[in-house]
Amino acid sequence: MTALHEPAQAGSPHAFPCPPLRLVDHLAQRTAALVAEVVTRICAEVDFYRSLPAETVKTDVTRIVRRNFEIMLRVLRTGEPPSDDDLADLIASAGNRADEQVPLSDVLDAYHVGARHWWATIAGLAQDGTRFAEGDLVRIGDLHYAWLRAATRAVIAGYDADDLGRPSEPRPGRSELLAALIDGGRYREVAARFHLTVEPEYWAVAVAVEPNPDETDAMVSSTVAAARKVRRLQRQFDGLGRGEALYSLTAGGGIALLPVRPAPHAESTTAPPDAAELDDRLRQLGERMAARTTCAVDLVRADEVAEVVPQLRDLLSIAQRQSSHRPVVRFADLAVEFQLSRPTRASRLSAARLDPIADDAVLWQTLRCYLDNACSTATTAQELHVHPNTVTYRLRKVSDLTGLNLGNPADVLTALGAVLAATPRPDSAGCQRADLYGHSTE
């Protein structure tokens, strides 16, 4: 990385005598308070920061304010301008804000808010009776300015990808390779063109990410919240794929291919050595994303990707419509449901069996919950927060209207196929809705 400052040398304008160490120690002891005060001021005084998600303020904004405070203290302590490593942190943070479309002027304004507050704190010590040697405040001001000047240049560099030599696509060729694999095209030619390797096998993952509270807050910028989710999701899959993952992701989810590379000389088994680890980490994905996630997973050869990925998307859709959330599903988990959901010439006729209850959200959801819970009246009643007798009454009404005997295994399969074949209703995303089911229809 090109240095954003000149090295400090004796006699150069960038080298300053150090201020009294007691001052630096005094400021360091107040780090938590001074950082918190600046974060509060930034959110109050800089327009765009008022719309940032609370989590972003608590984590990213607070972290970079603290990092700047630490850098400033080091400059005051040593008399040296910020190092390239220091500035790399500021550049990376500014790049994230650029990705989130935060105006550059607002980011610079935030830095100046912090600089003004910290200088006011230092100047206030003199007004409160702290004695500085002649010229100390001038030297401290020069050092303070050296930090702010370097930090300002780092922010501008973080917003200007061309000056940093940062490519517009951080993973050159991988999106093209993923597209070729999914389309069933000449993926080996694409890989060769970009000097990439096509692995014999991949974990194919279709992932759905539900909105988090920040995205539904009218005071929060939806652009910032979405960009943050995408970046976090990319980081998670980069970790899962050890930096070699192929993915196409949005704030709502997408598709990822994770290379499977068994350890050398490992005995061949049905499941690769990292299968259990993969499942565990995918189950933790929602916690790390601060939003509920659902993943449909399958092990595929490179030449199977084009066939399996569309089926994984269908499996994911079925899993999302289940009343009980499963963070990770495979075809074996929902085999019957998946087979019954396959579109055939009979699908329309199958779905038509439920036309008599199509406009009754309560009966529709009760039937779906009942089928999702292995036809257990007690479990269905528990999830719907109603009495088991209410569930029995509703199911009897379904039977009367549709002619399906839900005590007959064959009719249960017919009902399940009809539910899966029918177009999802607006209220059919889940069955735990107290407003719909908190009262009896008896």
TrEMBL record:
Domain RsbT co-antagonist protein RsbRD N-terminal positions: 33-160
Pfam families, alphabetically?
A: HTH_30 (PF13556), RsbRD_N (PF14361)
- Which ranges carry the PucR C-terminal helix-turn-helix domain? 363-415
Q: Where does the UniProt annotation place the signal sequence?
A: none
- What is the protein's given name? Transcriptional regulator
**Per the UniProt entry, what species is this protein from, by scientific name?**
Gordonia crocea
